[in-house]
Structure of Integral membrane protein:
Amino acid sequence: MVREVIFFLGIAIFLGAIWMIKDENISKKIKIIITVVIISSGIFAYIYETKKLDTADKNLQLLAEFRQGKSLVCGDINVTNEKFNYEFGTSCFMPKREFKELSGLVIKISDCESAK
């Protein structure tokens, strides 16, 4: 919450500084264009970051359930910590070596849902 306030306060201060410049140096048309571009970019960045944080929170919740031994539904496959390992570098579930029938299977955590 504090990051958002600081972000929007910084944008407001920057835009205020632009509008304080005399019209002889930068025309009103240019000031309006700059304002629209900055506000549009700020809104886009806020929406993007919010979506990324929601996805990260969902993935952390799924990983916590996986570590607790709960089953995750990934497409038509049930993923448990008995048969799969989680690879942090790729954010994927990989089957353990002793399960030859699952060999070569790679499941992204983003494709999974919590089993209810």
